């Protein structure tokens, strides 16, 4: 199933070039009083939601091209990111002074660099676009496979990791180049794009063999496959959950391949991940 959020927060099922409105199914979600849970309630109740969707009578459909797509996950507790998780990207970071700025920490392999977090306030959907800051500095695109956690897990072994996944999406990790910590340079508003929808885990048998690519204004910039990840999805879930508890709705952005390059206001980014689809994102100045 391909679930999207669009417009003012409607829930839809993507069926070809159309979106079927299934917002009525949100009635199955439990209500909470303050303090609210720190996880995403829709993702935590995804099985019940899908069952309710299948019970709904025929609903209104609208063309996919006519809707403004939001992030398919509204309230992730955290966005976990994997730096330099493709060897060729690590090589280009080491080779290009504009990327490493002489900082040895930026040139370390993922086993040494570890993971980092992006602010949840940086999250947008493709229809909201990217608003660039610090235009006097280089801003880069990074296309990545995004993994949405579906159940609470801590110290999850690799053998159980895929069972913790609710689904997959395309992630764009936008980056301001500089000497500061990664989480600062990657956390401005709109610097985490998730979409165009959530593809439930049952539709992707092997996240470790998916083509991914990105073009800017029609020019291809990155083209690779998730089989080249240094730490694949199970390893990343095991690694992340050894440091902190993963909750439903948490997003793991798995890393970007070689070919990162600058973007600027007026650009249009087209990002693709096999078995998920394509999302187009417009770039503007903040």
What does this protein structure show overall?
- The chain has two domains: 2-68, no CATH class; 79-285, Fumarylacetoacetate hydrolase, domain 2 (Alpha-Beta Complex).
- Helix content is 17%, strand content 32%.
- The protein has helices spanning 41-44, 46-55, 87-95, 97-100, 110-113, 158-161, 182-185, 233-241, and strands at residues 2-6, 10-15, 18-21, 61-63, 69-70, 79-81, 116-118, 123-124, 130-132, 139-140, 143-149, 165-173, 175-176, 192-200, 211-216, 219-225, 251-253, 268-273, 277-285.
- The strands form three sheets. Strands 1, 2, 3, 4, 5, 6, 7, 8, 11, 12, 14 and 17 form a twelve-stranded mixed β-sheet that branches.
- The protein is globular and about 55 Å long.
- 44% of the residues are buried.
- The mean pLDDT is 94.
Q: Main beta sheet, described?
A: 12 strands, mixed
Shape: globular
The helical percent reads 10-25%
Number of helices: 8
CATH architecture of the largest domain: Alpha-Beta Complex
Number of domains: 2
**What is the CATH topology descriptor of the largest domain?**
Fumarylacetoacetate hydrolase, domain 2
Compute the average pLDDT: 94
Quantity of strands, as a count: 19
Topology as H/E string?
EEEHHEEEHHHEEEEEHEEHEEEHEEE
**Unreliable spans:** none
CATH classification, class level of the largest domain = Alpha Beta
Look at the structure and name the CATH superfamily of the largest domain: Fumarylacetoacetase-like, C-terminal domain
Structural class: alpha+beta
Rg result: 18 Å
Strand content: 25-35%
Termini Cα gap: 34 Å
């Amino acid at each position: 199933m391909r679930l999207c959020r669009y417009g003012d927060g409607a829930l839809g099922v993507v069926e070809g070039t159309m979106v079927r409105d299934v917002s009525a199914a949100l009635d199955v979600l439990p209500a909470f009083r303050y303090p609210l849970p720190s996880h995403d309630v829709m993702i935590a109740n995804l099985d019940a939601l899908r069952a309710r969707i299948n019970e709904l009578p025929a609903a209104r459909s609208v063309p996919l091209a006519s809707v403004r797509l939001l992030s398919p996950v509204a309230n992730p507790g955290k966005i976990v990111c994997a730096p330099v998780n493709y060897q060729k990207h690590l090589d280009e970071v080491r080779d290009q002074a504009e990327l490493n700025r002489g900082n040895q920490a930026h040139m370390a392999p993922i086993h040494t660099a570890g993971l980092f977090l992006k602010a949840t306030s940086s999250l947008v959907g493709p229809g909201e676009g990217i608003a660039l800051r610090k235009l006097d500095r280089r801003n880069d695109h990074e296309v990545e496979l995004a993994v949405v956690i579906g159940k609470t897990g801590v110290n999850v072994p690799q053998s159980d990791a895929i069972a913790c996944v609710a689904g997959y999406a395309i992630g764009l990790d936008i980056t301001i180049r500089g000497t500061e910590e990664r989480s600062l340079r990657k956390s401005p508003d709109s610097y985490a794009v998730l979409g165009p929808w959530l593809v439930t885990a049952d539709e992707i048998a092997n996240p470790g063999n998916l083509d991914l690519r990105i073009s800017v204004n029609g020019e291809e910039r990155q083209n690779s496959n998730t089989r080249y990840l240094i730490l694949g999805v199970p390893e990343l879930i095991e690694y992340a959950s050894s440091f902190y508890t993963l909750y439903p709705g948490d997003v793991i952005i798995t890393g970007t391949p070689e070919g990162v390059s600058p973007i600027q206001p007026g650009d249009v980014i087209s990002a693709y991940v096999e078995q998920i689809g394509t999302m187009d994102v417009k770039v503007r100045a903040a």
